[in-house]
Amino acid sequence: xxxxxxxxxxxxxxxxxxxxxxxxxxxxxxxxxxxxxxxxxxxxxxxxxxxxxxxxxxxxxxxxxxxxxxxxxxxxxxxxxxxxxxxxxxxxxxxxxxxxxxxxxxxxxxxxxxxxxxxxxxxxxxxxxxxxxxxxxxxxxxxxxxxxxxxxxxxxxxxxxxxxxxxxxxxxxxxxxxxxxxxxxxxxxxxxxxxxxxxxxxxxxxxxxxxxxxxxxxxxxxxxxxxxxxxxxxxxxxxxxxxxxxxxxxxxxxxxxxxxxxxxxxxxxxxxxxxxxxxxxxxxxxxxxxxxxxxxxxxxxxxxxxxxxxxxxxxxxxxxxxxxxxxxxxxxxxxxxxxxxxxxxxxxxxxxxxxxxxxxxxxxxxxxxxxxxxxxxxxxxxxxxxxxxxxxxxxxxxxxxxxxxxxxxxxxxxxxxxxxxxxxxxxxxxxxxxxxxxxxxxxxxxxxxxxxxxxxxxxxxxxxxxxxxxxxxxxxxxxxxxxxxxxxxxxxxxxxxxxxxxxxxxxxxxxxxxxxxxxxxxxxxxxxxxxxxxxxxxxxxxxxxxxxxxxxxxxxxxxxxxxxxxxx
Length: 568
Description:
By secondary structure, the chain is α/β, with parallel strands linked by helices. The chain has helices at 3-26, 62-74, 117-128, 175-193, 195-199, 218-235, 252-267, 302-317, 354-374, 408-416, 435-441, 506-512, 521-530, and strands at 31-43, 50-53, 80-83, 104-106, 112-114, 132-137, 202-205, 241-246, 282-288, 292-294, 297-299, 326-333, 377-381, 383-384, 401-402, 405-406, 422-426, 448-456, 459-467, 478-485, 491-499, 534-535, 540-543, 548-555, 560-566. Among the domains are: 29-41 and 422-566, Glycosyl hydrolase domain, family 39 (Immunoglobulin-like); 84-255, Glycosidases (TIM Barrel), CATH 3.20.20.80. The strands form 5 sheets. Strands 1, 17, 18, 19, 20, 21, 22, 23, 24 and 25 form a 10-stranded mixed sheet that branches. Strands 13-12-9-8-7-6-3-2-14 form a 9-stranded parallel sheet. Strands 4-5 form a two-stranded antiparallel ribbon. The protein is globular and about 75 Å long. The model is unreliable at 1-27 (pLDDT under 50).
């Protein structure tokens, strides 16, 4: 075949494919999203205003302090922060999945030596920003570990995960000394921050004791919990203590551990007091998704995370004694390892762009609905994603910012921060997925085009997303008619915010710059600006007709829009 004929044929094929693709987009049926502001379905509680991370010493570093300030400023309520390793031995050393405070050592005679300097520095950083500790009592100081050697691990991405479970993960060699450590810590916090402030915190015992984070037995964890809980209450009887922070209850062994823990609190005498007085002020467990590569494309599994949440809620709801207790999902994420970068774990190549953002919008909406479904009291869901100091730009860690520049996912939380008051009804009849469909089947066929809406005295807000488990940006745009009923009969100011490939997206700009690993000051300034939440259009006024406002929009794959409507 002649070269000219080949070139002509290829041009025709490309043109034909383009036409077919455009027609496919044009043929997507319009989606009608109907919001009824007069139908309250629950409170728009800020369950999203919770964050956590492995490396506590990042808290007071330059980029850590910057990100904490931004997280605090996006929320109308105090944000709770949970960090690992607050009691780990070491001079403030830090690395991936490692941190230390040297809070507890012993002298040559085995007497306790308490040094709260670094712990105070961490908590001070929170308090200065109006944030509050979700204080994790862990991990084991070297002097108290029943197997202290080796103590420090040197894990790196790609290394076996089991290498992190060193001396800090073992039960105490003396439970009385361990209890006294917790008692002294709480007393110190009350003295430093005041009773009223510490009363507003939450204290929890350890992390994922049903896997390698706890190198003891289940019964030994119950003993650990009892001594810690007793110590907290002796120091401050009004303090809030809970657990057990197990892994996702969708896994049978995690469900068994959570159930056994609740049975222990309900039925057994305390190991610390010998009495049937084990305190439990909230219940905590984790929930994770499970992405994988399919034909070199990232495929998320939002259903796996929602099944963890659903089973945890079901278990709690089965206990009349505990059903009304607050539930905190202590880690709630698309998968399980924030420090596992894309280079070594290519299935995590969703984290820099809009897929993480749209997943987050779709997942949090279903957390509210699952809590309603089981009639439980969901207080918070911790996003386990912070920042990583001194790492390459956009290395693909599960974080909110890279080198001080916000990623698209943080802008979803900025959107949630503008939603308050009551959650109101979305008509689900015309939409592809209800919350149980997503839980049971994930999002593998049609796109999940859906919304969450809120109403306050002076306004309303509607967040809409176009999510799919497949990270395929050739998925057709969604043509959407947003119909909002129950509007006051007056003019409404509408602001439209957008996250997509071109808006509120520092990652896209960084790639356009050529993916620099040493960006100039001018480039950094541009990236910081691109990392903020953007208006999609200028604010505009509409007038409701018969109590309804209708807005037409087109939303690309993995895109999110927020409409904020204000009236007087």
